[in-house]
Amino acid sequence: MEKGTTAAGLKSANSFTHPLTMVLAPSSMTKRMKKNKQPLQITKDLGRWKPTDDLLLINAVLQTTDLTSVHLGVKFSCRFTLREIQERWYALLYDPVISKLAWQSMRQLHPEAIAAIQSKALFSQAEEALLAKITSSSQPKLEVFQDLLNKHPNVFYPSRTAKNLMVHWQLLKQYYLLEDQSVQPLPKGEQVLNFSDAEQVVDDAKLKDSRDEVLEHELMIADRHQKREIRQLEQELPRWQVLVDSITGMNSPDFDNQTLAALRGRMVRYLMRSREITLGRATKDKQIDVDLSLEGPAWKISRKQGIIKLKNNGDFFIANEGRRPIYIDGRPVLSGNKWKLNNNSVMEIAGLRFVFLINQELISLIKAEAAKMNQA
């Protein structure tokens, strides 16, 4: 099979001629197809091999005459192995049924698709030999490569352009493949020839003692940030009006000399240390005194569910500021209403239950002082 004859057959995209017609004539293939009636085994790979793949394979083999180079240099529609490429090429050459089917499919390709495939054809050794003669010190323009195309039309692939030749020449120059170039040898002395030599050169002691300055800097910044947060929390402790203590099951005293009342739940205990506190569900943009979400699921509770106040006469009242009712000893307190809280009153909000406990000793002192003020 002559290379120039095949290239001439592929030159015109509009009148596409199958390159294998010189090997297998359609008339002989038709006769063999009638005799061989085993289409299932023959066409088992037709689904993976597309007409574009067959055309790429044929062009690449005719250019390089090396299936290994085709496997490394051509990008098919699938990741074909070298063995699959070899089997496909032999089938196109010697199997009349597959060859005819592939030939018919390639004839149906659009001329633009054929032109695009032909533009991706690999460079042959003869083509690279002509390009390598252009010296690396020169700065050739497109006219030089166009003149090269005109002088050697039988060597270069028909779809080659001056721009293609210039790009490929630049690649050859980059990898020191021109005739006036030579690959620089590795420096002698402590050169590493293989992985074993490199492994022996490595000093394990230096690896163990190596310090990552970037990592240490990040750890130092993180430590400084954590210390700043701890200091900020310590400064905010005196401002807290309500303390939340976890219940441990021990009979610890509910009150001290600063606690007016306590709201005891199943999981936590809220201590009231100011005359007015807000309760509800805390969010990132809204902080409240008593966060009921610490007790349990609180997604039904409003962000500001209610306010508990201590009046001068020593009575506690709760005002419902949320959308859901607050149940006090089984009685609903609707939104906008108030209700008096007594000692051991049971409060229920959206399924969460609490017991309101009053520090009777401290409230008695407050009432006595209020009475003295009124008498005065």
Describe this structure in words.
One of its GO terms (biological process) is DNA recombination. InterPro entries: FHA_dom (IPR000253), MCRS1 (IPR037912), MCRS_N (IPR025999), SMAD_FHA_dom_sf (IPR008984). Pfam families: FHA, MCRS_N. This protein has 376 residues and is α+β, with helices and mostly antiparallel strands. It has 15 helices and twelve strands. The strands form two sheets. A seven-stranded antiparallel beta sheet has the order 1-3-2-12-11-8-9, with no helix packed on it. A five-stranded mixed beta sheet has the order 5-4-6-7-10, with no helix packed on it. A hairpin with a 3-residue loop joins β2 and β3. The longest helix has 24 residues.
Summary tags:
alpha+beta, disordered N terminus, 5-stranded mixed sheet, 376 residues
Q: How much is the radius of gyration in Å?
A: 45 Å
Weakly predicted, low-confidence segments:
1-18, 20-44, 246-252
Approximately how much helix is present in the residues? 40-55%
State mean pLDDT (0 to 100 scale).
Answer: 79
- Distance N to C terminus: 126 Å
Based on Cα principal axes, name the global outline: elongated
Main beta-sheet strand count, sense and barrel state? 7 strands, antiparallel
| Sequence of secondary-structure elements | HHHHHHHHHHHHHHEEEEEEEEEEEEH
Strand content: 5-15%
Question: What count of helical segments does DSSP give?
Answer: 15
Return the structural class: alpha+beta
Query: Which strand order do you get reading across the main beta sheet?
Result: 1-3-2-12-11-8-9
Count the strands? Answer: 12
Blueprint (SSEs and pairs):
Elements: H1 3-10, H2 26-35, H3 39-42, H4 51-64, H5 67-73, H6 82-94, H7 96-107, H8 111-118, H9 125-132, H10 142-151, H11 162-174, H12 195-201, H13 204-209, H14 213-236, E1 242-246, E2 261-264, E3 268-272, E4 276-280, E5 290-291, E6 306-310, E7 316-320, E8 326-328, E9 331-333, E10 338-341, E11 345-349, E12 352-358, H15 360-375
Parallel strand pairs: 4-5
Antiparallel strand pairs: 1-3, 2-3, 2-12, 4-6, 6-7, 7-10, 8-9, 8-11, 11-12
Helix pairs in contact: 2-7, 4-7, 4-8, 6-7, 10-11
